[in-house]
Design goal:
Number of strands: 0
Shape: globular
Number of domains: 1
Radius of gyration: 20 Å
Largest sheet: none
Structural class: mainly alpha
Distance between the termini: 28 Å
Length: 266
C-alpha cells in the first residue's frame, strides 16, 4: 500500500508542474460551456416553460454540473500515456517489479484529478458564481450521500474504459483514431452535449443498456432528483456492474496484450 501512496505523491508533484496548462485548459473549457448556457437561455426566452421536463434553472444548472463532474472524474491524457508506455516498452519494468500496472496507473489518475481540482476549483467556482441564480440545492438529503458514491464510480468507469482502450497499443502502432471515436460517442451518449431526456424514450432506454450514461448523466440525474427512489438504487446497481465489467475487461485486455508482448520479446 505504501508504494502506491508514494506513486500518488510523486504523481501530484509531477502534475502540479503543469498547473499552468491545467489552468489554461479550465479557462478555455468555459467557452463552450458559456455558449451552451447562452443557447439554452435564448431557447427558454423564446419558449417559456419546460423542455423535456427541465425548467430553465434545471437546464442551466445541468450544464454547470457537467463542468463540475468533468473536473472531478474526467480522464485527460491517461490513455495516451498508457499507450506510449506500451509502444516505447516502458511496461517491461512492471513485469519485473512487484507493482501492478493497473493500480499504478489508477494512482496516477487519482493524483492527476487531485491536482486538476486544486487548479480548477477557484476559476470554476467563480464561473458558477456568475450564474448563481440557477444553482439548485440537492433534490433530497439522501442525495448528499448517494451523489458522491456515484461520482466515484463514474471516475472508475471512465478510467477502466480508457485503460482498456489504451491496451489496443499492444496490437496497433497508432490508436488515436479509436480514442477520438470513443470520445465522440461518450460526448453524445453520456449527456455532455445535451440531457438524455431530450432524446426519444426508446433511444434513451437503448443508451441505458450501455455504460455511457453512467459516465456523466446518471450522477447528475441523481443530484437533480430525476433519478430517485427505486430507480436511483437500480441505477446505482447498474453503474456498479458496469464498473466491475470494465475492470474485468481491462484486466483481460492486459493479459491478452502481455501474451503478444512476450511473444515478440518485449
Amino acid at each position: 500500500m505504501n508504494k502506491y501512496l508514494h506513486v500518488i505523491s510523486i504523481g501530484l508533484q509531477s502534475n502540479l508542474a503543469y498547473r499552468v496548462n491545467y489552468l489554461t485548459r479550465t479557462l478555455f473549457s468555459f467557452i463552450p460551456l458559456f455558449a451552451m448556457l447562452s443557447l439554452w437561455r435564448t431557447i427558454y426566452r423564446n419558449q417559456p416553460g419546460s423542455n423535456s421536463g427541465f425548467s430553465q434553472a434545471q437546464m442551466m444548472f445541468y450544464y454547470l454540473l457537467v463542468a463540475v463532474v468533468d473536473v472531478l472524474t474526467a480522464v485527460n491524457e491517461d490513455d495516451w500515456q498508457i499507450a506510449a508506455d506500451i509502444r516505447e516498452g516502458n511496461i517491461s519494468q512492471f513485469l519485473l517489479k512487484p507493482m501492478d500496472y493497473l493500480r499504478y496507473r489508477l494512482c496516477l489518475f487519482i493524483s492527476g484529478r487531485i491536482a486538476f481540482i486544486a487548479v480548477a476549483a477557484i476559476p470554476l467556482g467563480l464561473f458558477i458564481l456568475c450564474f448563481r441564480q440557477y444553482v439548485l440545492a440537492p433534490a433530497s438529503p439522501v442525495t448528499w450521500l448517494v451523489f458522491p458514491v456515484s461520482l466515484i464510480m463514474t471516475a472508475l468507469l471512465q478510467f477502466f474504459i480508457s485503460y482498456a482502450m489504451a491496451m489496443l497499443a499492444f496490437w496497433l502502432l497508432e490508436i488515436s483514431t479509436f480514442i477520438f471515436i470513443l470520445f465522440a460517442i461518450e460526448y453524445l451518449a453520456s449527456g455532455h452535449l445535451f440531457p438524455l431526456d431530450i432524446l426519444p424514450a426508446t433511444l434513451k432506454h437503448v443508451l441505458y443498456l450501455t455504460p455511457f450514461p453512467y459516465q456523466l448523466y446518471f450522477p447528475i440525474s441523481i443530484y437533480l432528483g430525476r433519478a430517485s427512489g427505486a430507480e436511483m438504487w437500480r441505477g446505482l446497481g447498474c453503474q456498479l456492474l458496469w464498473v466491475v465489467a470494465a475492470y474485468l475487461f481491462a484486466r483481460w485486455m492486459w493479459r491478452c496484450g502481455l501474451r503478444k508482448y512476450s511473444a515478440f520479446g518485449g
